[in-house]
DNA sequence: CTAAAACATAAACCTAACTTTAGGTCAAGA
DNA sequence: TCTTGACCTAAAGTTAGGTTTATGTTTTAG
């Protein structure tokens, strides 16, 4: 069993954040002794899942719902599995979006590289997509799709 | 030249958002006629860049700075290029993070699939990393790295 | 036993990025 | 002429996800 300060160290999270998560119902079965929180293995695994679900874009109130399901035993396995599948889809979509963003950024890096090398603004300003080098045209197409 | 309503349609952005961007200084050279905003090609390209930089995680106040640089001509090419390079690095790091998140999500999907199929909570609860199937162990390792 | 460190709560505060509201201008069509 | 629709501003409101503050209690080290 760990204190809030120890868990704060272990996860690199402020104590205030752990208390906030608790207040929001993210540790529904956490025990206390004289009012003092006792983090067990259940809460540590909960925190790992919280970080994952947060990184996937899930809101705190929906993470709370998931944690409730975890207290209800195997009957909620299907809901839990579906939640993770929807999160997986959401993350895949976000990665697609980031790939487009990356294409745009790489195109812009190339653009300014060329502009700096040529020291000529006007020629670049009027550059048309079909006059780009093939690899840059590919990036341009991804970025503008 | 387009009105704010037309641009709102074209980009799928609320009019209020476009006005907000303007107020924050994201269209430093936009013209007006009788107080009415006139969006030109410069502003449309600005909006494409804004969407890209926002998707890369840049804050509005920093996007404003970039737009200022754009009004200052070729002397700011180096700053602009460096900004895009830092954004590229940030996006690459975010994609790495998302790959780990995805590994965790896929592991959890598999976990619940197996749990539902076996209908046995306790056997899974005590599952150790080195007893997982090889492909799941790989996911587990990525997710917990 | 006592002092400091670590814990606790409730409630106010914070920030970013918008959105809504209230009130006003202006151009075009019936 | 009137009224409708699209535009304008300033300022207040909203939301998520915390953080800070003020105050009080418990644990721990000497």
Any key phrases for this structure?
homodimer; 145 residues; Multidrug-efflux Transporter Regulator, Chain: A, Domain 2; 2 domains; two-stranded antiparallel sheet; 2 strands; 69% helix; DNA-binding
Notes on the protein architecture:
Two copies of one chain form a homodimer. The model of chain A has no long low-confidence stretch (mean pLDDT 91). Helices cover 69% and strands 4% of the residues of chain A. In chain A, strands 1-2 form a two-stranded antiparallel sheet. With 145 residues, chain A is mainly alpha-helical. Chain A has seven helices and two strands. The A-B interface holds A 48-49, 52, 55-56, 73-74, 77-78, 80-81, 84-85, 87-88, 91-92, 94-95, 97-102, 104-106, 108-109, 112-113, 115-116, 119, 121, 143-144 and B 48-49, 52, 55-56, 73-74, 77-78, 80-81, 84-85, 87-88, 91-92, 94-95, 97-102, 104-106, 108-109, 112-113, 115-116, 119, 121, 143-144. Chain A binds a DNA duplex (30 and 30 nucleotides) through helix 2.
Quaternary status of these chains?
homodimer
Mean pLDDT of chain A: 91
| Largest β-sheet summary of chain A | 2 strands, antiparallel
Give start-end ranges of low-pLDDT stretches of chain A. none
Secondary structure class of chain A reads mainly alpha
How much beta of chain A, percentage-wise?
under 5%
Report the span from N to C terminus of chain A. 52 Å
CATH class of the largest domain in chain A: Mainly Alpha
Overall, the morphology of chain A is elongated
For the largest interface, the chains and their residue counts are:
A-B, 38 and 38 residues
- Report helical residue fraction of chain A: 55-70%
Element order of chain A: H for helix, E for strand: HHEEHHHHH
The number of helices of chain A is 7
| Total domain modules of chain A | 2
C-alpha Rg of chain A (nearest Å): 24 Å
């Amino acid at each position: 069993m760990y204190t809030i300060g120890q868990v704060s160290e272990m996860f690199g999270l402020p104590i205030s954040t752990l208390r906030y998560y608790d207040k929001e119902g993210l540790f529904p079965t956490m025990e206390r002794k004289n009012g003092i929180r006792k983090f067990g293995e259940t809460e540590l695994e909960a925190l790992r899942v919280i970080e994952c679900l947060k990184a996937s874009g899930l809101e705190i109130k929906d993470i709370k719902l998931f944690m409730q399901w975890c207290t209800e035993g195997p009957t909620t396995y299907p809901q839990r599995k579906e939640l993770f599948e929807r999160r997986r889809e959401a993350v895949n979509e976000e990665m697609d979006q980031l790939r487009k963003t990356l294409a745009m950024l790489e195109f812009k890096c190339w653009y300014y590289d060329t502009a700096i090398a040529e020291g000529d603004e006007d020629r670049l300003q009027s550059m048309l997509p079909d006059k780009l080098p093939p690899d840059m045209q590919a990036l341009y197409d991804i970025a503008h799709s």
